[in-house]
């Protein structure tokens, strides 16, 4: 509780990164904005990539937060920030944001989605004016997490899914991935959702575990849900296979202790760094290659077996994407 309260208070204030005379990186003056819809511990890790890019490039990046997970708040805040001159923007999108994107793009503002996808069509990207989406393939990652749990369960029984807010487009995709895995393997699925804070995460994890005493496995799809589950399992005398998400200290310690089996490590550093790198190159005149939009930033299942080596695999993905920008995604 104390840790999350401190983190969220630190995140709530808007900050300007590397304010030391950001240089013009192309035609006209680029003003970079990195926008988070509301405080979340995942964004703390994304910010490390933002900080690194700002330092590497000597370019100012303004970071700002909304107060809730609603598209109206996002639209109002981003519009207000744009009116002060920001014109190269990375945004964690919410459902319904494409109308705002249409307006901004007409004004010459370039946008990259990070962490989630604003496109709902096939092929991806067809219904949004965002140039790219740099994110985890979250449906596939959740599917893989569920399959890993089901395999450790012996291929039968009940699996519990603990989801966060369903207004987050990633949560819905993760929900679909878990459901698909359970359907394919003939597993009974029980789920709970609507988690925004650690108190709710702990209570909902406790309630669903107690309501399903025969469940053999659990998947969580957000940091807050993960922390709630771990705190509950630490206080229970129960053997259950759990795969969580992300790599906070509490999660990694739980793997070492055997409280949970594993976690899906995303690439939040890459979400921050690569989004800004792409915006820089677009500002410098690069063009999007036809058919390119979604950039899969990578994910790794972390268990006791690879807990000391997984980060190198994730870093390699970030570097490869950066190296391949002009062979895979952009043209000069």
List keywords for this structure.
six-stranded mixed beta sheet; 15 strands; seven-stranded mixed beta sheet; alpha/beta; 332 residues; disordered N terminus; 46% helix
Query: Which assembly state applies to the chains in this document?
Result: single chain
The gyration radius over C-alpha positions equals 20 Å
Major beta-sheet overview: 7 strands, mixed
H/E order of the elements?
Answer: HEEHEHEHEEHEHEHEHEHEHEEEHHE
How many helices? The count is 12
Low-confidence stretches: 1-27
Head-to-tail CA distance between termini: 49 Å
The helix-and-strand class reads alpha/beta
Query: How many E-type strands?
Result: 15
Shape: globular
Query: Into which percentage range does the β-strand content fall?
Result: 15-25%
Indicate the percent of residues in helices.
Answer: 40-55%
In spatial order, strands of the major sheet run 1-3-2-4-5-6-13
Mean pLDDT: 90
Give a quick rundown of the structure.
This protein has a 7-stranded mixed sheet with strand order 1-3-2-4-5-6-13, sandwiched between helices. Strands 8-7-9-10-11-14 form a 6-stranded mixed sheet, with helices on both faces.
């Amino acid at each position: 509780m104390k840790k999350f309260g401190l983190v969220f208070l630190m995140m709530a204030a808007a900050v300007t990164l590397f304010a030391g005379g950001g240089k013009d990186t192309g035609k006209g003056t680029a003003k970079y904005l990195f926008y988070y819809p509301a405080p979340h511990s995942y964004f703390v890790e994304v910010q490390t990539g933002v900080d690194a890019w700002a330092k590497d490039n000597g370019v100012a990046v303004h970071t700002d937060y909304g107060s809730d997970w609603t598209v109206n708040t996002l639209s109002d805040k981003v519009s207000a920030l744009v009116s002060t001159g920001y014109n190269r923007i990375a945004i964690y999108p919410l459902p319904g944001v494409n109308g705002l994107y249409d307006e901004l793009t007409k004004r010459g503002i370039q946008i990259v989605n990070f962490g989630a996808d604003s496109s709902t069509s096939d092929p991806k990207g067809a219904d949004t004016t965002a140039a790219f989406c740099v994110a985890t393939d979250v449906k596939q990652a959740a599917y893989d997490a569920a399959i890993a749990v089901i395999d450790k369960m012996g291929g039968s029984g009940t699996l519990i899914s603990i989801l966060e807010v369903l207004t987050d487009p990633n949560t819905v995709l993760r929900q679909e991935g878990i459901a698909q895995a359970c359907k394919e393997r003939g597993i009974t699925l029980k789920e709970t959702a609507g988690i925004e804070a650690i108190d709710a995460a702990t209570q909902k994890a406790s309630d669903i575990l107690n309501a399903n005493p025969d469940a053999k496995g659990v998947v969580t799809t957000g940091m807050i849900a993960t922390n709630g589950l771990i705190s509950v399992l630490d206080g229970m005398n129960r053997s259950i296979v759990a795969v969580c998400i992300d790599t906070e200290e509490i999660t990694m310690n739980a793997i070492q202790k055997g409280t949970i089996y594993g976690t899906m490590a995303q690439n939040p550093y890459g979400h921050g760094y690569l989004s800004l790198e792409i915006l820089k190159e677009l500002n410098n005149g690069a063009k999007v290659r036809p058919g390119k939009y979604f950039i899969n930033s990578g994910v790794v299942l972390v268990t006791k077996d690879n807990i000391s080596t997984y980060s190198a695999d994730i870093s390699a993905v970030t570097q490869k994407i950066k190296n391949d920008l002009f062979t895979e995604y952009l043209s000069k």
